[in-house]
Amino acid sequence: MRKIIKEISIGRQSIKDKPEKSDLLVHVKPSDKMNIEIKSSVLRLFKTTLYKLVEDTLKEYQVGPCTIIINDDGALDFAIKARIRTAVNLASEQDIFKENIKEGEILKEETKYIKSLKNRLRRSRLYLPGNNPYLMQNSYLFGADSLIFDLEDSVAISEKMSAPKDKATFLKLA
Known about the structure:
Strand order of the largest sheet: 1-2-4-3
Number of strands: 6
Order of helices and strands: EEEHEHEHEH
CATH topology of the largest domain: Ribosomal Protein S5, domain 2
Helix content: 25-40%
Shape: globular
CATH architecture of the largest domain: 2-Layer Sandwich
Low-confidence stretches: 100-107, 170-174
CATH class of the largest domain: Alpha Beta
Largest sheet: 4 strands, mixed
Distance between the termini: 33 Å
Number of helices: 4
Strand content: 15-25%
Structural class: alpha/beta
Radius of gyration: 17 Å
């Protein structure tokens, strides 16, 4: 069980504690019991889904009692999960990112078809920074033959931890 030992906030904000469009701010602090508070522009429509996503993410990373406050402006599921994972990692005593993933563990049954796309014609490539959910969300609009979510050169050093790290996240976007 990961114990939250310090208070931390992550995410990019535009004005006065408001997150950028299609992004979120996550604030984690130590507490005696689990307390989740979500402020969202889409809370009326997705209240149950948002709370379940946050609870499942905290359970997946084995987070102990804490208070987590999320200020959301329509972020996608993978962005919410990535921001929570980063906040928990920075606020806890254990490092989530150092957990070992065995080779081939990420590619499951539903992604086997990707091998058949190997010889597909690729006339255009669109490179997108891996830490900007808004650009990922609308990337299909540009009609590129392939999308490349860059986690290295196009992501600022201060933002690298909050970009989704796992291949499965990006495979679900395709």
